[in-house]
Amino acid sequence: MIIVMQDAASQADTLAVQERVHAEGLETRVLRGVAKTVIAVIGHRPPELLQQVRRMGGVESAMPIGEPFKLAARGPERERSTVRVGGAAVGGGAVTVIAGPCTVESRAQLEAAASCVAASGAHALRGGAFKPRSSPYSFQGLGEAGLELLAEARAATGLPIVTEVLDPRQVEMVAEYADMLQVGTRNAQNYPLLREVGGCGRPVLLKRGMGNTIDEWLMCAEYVLAAGNPDVVLCERGIRTFETTSRFTLDLNAVPLLRQRTHLPLVVDPSQGTGHWFMVEPLTLAAVAAGADGVIVEVHPTPEAALLDGQQSLNFDHFGALMAALRPMAAALGRPLAAPARAPAPAAA
Ligand code: PEP
Ligand code: MN
Questions:
Q1: Buried b or exposed e, range 17-34, using 16+ CB within 10 angstroms
Q2: What is d(CA 182, CA 235) in angstroms, rounded to the nearest whole number?
Q3: Is 184 close to ligand 1, i.e. is its CB under 6 Å away?
Q4: Cα–Cα–Cα angle for 241, 139, 250, nearest 5°?
Q5: CB 317 within 8 A of CB 311
Q6: Domains contained in the chain, CATH given
Q7: Are 122 and 320 a contacting pair, CB within 8 Å?
Q8: Burial level of 334, CB count in 10 A (0-12/13-18/19+)?
Q9: CA 148 to CA 74: how far, in whole Å?
Q10: Minimum mean pLDDT among 37-41, 43-47, 239-243: which range?
Q11: Which atom of ligand 1 has the smallest separation from the CA of 103?
């Protein structure tokens, strides 16, 4: 932390600030210029000290120097992390594709979507069983029955499953079924939920809150990491802006920024991020070109009949075309698609 004293600050003001800082067991160095006095604070300060010092007499400003997200920060030496999700991985150089329906609607719908995305080379299956709906009267998801269908689809295809958890009280139950727990944009700053998934023993896909800055998002990740879970994958899914022609504005600036600022792997969700199926393939390619470790995309057997997010869901032909476009591009970038998960051997008759 650096503290800048006001021009009119007295010697006693500077001493009082130094004493306050020393009381926390920290050291200070004072630099006296012609008009200004600056106090450099050395050591790990308690987070509250910044605000407290700003209120002291004679203080003009106080600013932090290090990142406040100590566990998520990249640091000078730190390699980027790889997070394992069942037999798949996010990070580590290869491009990972998570695909499946927005929402689990029925056994037939999920089976069809799961076998399509597996056959096209996806690495994990997505599907919501608990849906955060704007209206309490809308379909809320199949709940635990949806999780059972996801577990069946995993058994049939070998794909690990990624599914959203909405409520801290349901984390344990969702973690019994899922290979990765998704925290959605509407819950990105639900700190009790973040703490709970921090103790769930499963990797976490942490979406960006639609109104959150990158720094706020990294502090959300810090909650999960600080609760003891090192396996966090960040997911850029678009933010609210003044633009209304797409559902959200997919912030691809986040990709190179986050590669600098955090070691955590990052995927992009061009489905929620645009709201339009025809934008999903170009923005998948753009996300991977920008350095994303993968994407999560919505795929539905009959998007026109989907209960949720049909407008932004790819049909099977579109998903096949996306994979066919992505494969050579990822290879050309030196980050080829990982080999697809192998379907488990059929049970003996
Ligand atoms: C979803 O993945 O279907 C979803 C609801 O995501 P988000 O939280 O990003 O809106
Ligand atoms: Mn969706």
A1: bbebbeeeebebeeeeee
A2: 9
A3: yes
A4: 20
A5: no
A6: 2-63 (3.30.70.1140), 83-332 (3.20.20.70)
A7: no
A8: exposed
A9: 37
A10: 43-47
A11: 3
Backbone angles phi, psi at 28, to 5 degrees: -130, 155
With pLDDT > 70 as the criterion, what percentage of the chain qualifies?
97
Please report the DSSP string for 290-320 in residue order: HT-SEEEEEB-S-GGG-SS-GGG-B-HHHHH
Please tell me the distance between residue 226's alpha carbon and the centre of ligand 1 in angstroms: 24
Helices (H), the chain: 11-22, 48-54, 107-119, 144-157, 171-177, 191-197, 214-226, 254-261, 270-274, 280-290, 316-332
* Binding site membership of 102 for ligand 1 (Cβ less than 6 Å): yes
Distance CA 137, CA 283 (A): 32
For residue 40, report the phi and psi dihedrals to the nearest 5 degrees. -95, 130
Alpha-carbon distance of 162 to 258, in angstroms, equals 22
Mean pLDDT score across all residues of the chain: 96
Q: Does the beta carbon of 247 lie inside 6 Å of ligand 1?
A: no
Amino acid at 66: G
How many whole angstroms separate alpha carbon 206 and alpha carbon 282?
23
Instruction: Give yes or no for a contact between 322 and 284, defined as CB atoms under 8 angstroms apart.
Output: yes
**Whole-model pTM over 0.85:** yes
Q: 239 C-alpha to center of ligand 1: Å?
A: 12
pLDDT at 342: 60
**What pLDDT, in 10s, does the model give residues 178-215?**
999 999 999 999 999 999 999 999 999 999 999 999 99
Q: Which amino acid is at 85?
A: V
Helices (H) and strands (E) in the chain, counts: 11, 14
Distance CA 333, CA 8 (A): 57
